[in-house]
Design brief:
Elements (H helix, E strand, L loop, with lengths): L1 H22 L12 H4 L25
Length: about 60
């Protein structure tokens, strides 16, 4: 009885592993061409928490 369970479990694992291997994307294909907007991430520079926020009309102070 134990041998039948062992063989059944082994076959089930083999089927699952083969299905998972077949489902992974192929990495040897040519890369998909992306537009420049999609290729580079958009970075937003946020002020540090200790800096005061400036409104749109305030001039930027120089550090001299």
């Amino acid at each position: 009885m134990l041998n039948v369970r062992l063989v059944t479990t082994s076959l089930a694992m083999l089927v699952v592993l083969m299905a998972a291997a077949a489902a992974e994307p192929v990495k040897d294909q040519a890369p998909v061409v992306q537009s420049s907007a999609e290729a580079r991430p958009i970075r937003v520079i946020l002020p540090a928490p200790w800096e005061t926020t400036q409104s749109q009309g305030e001039p930027v102070k120089s550090s001299k």
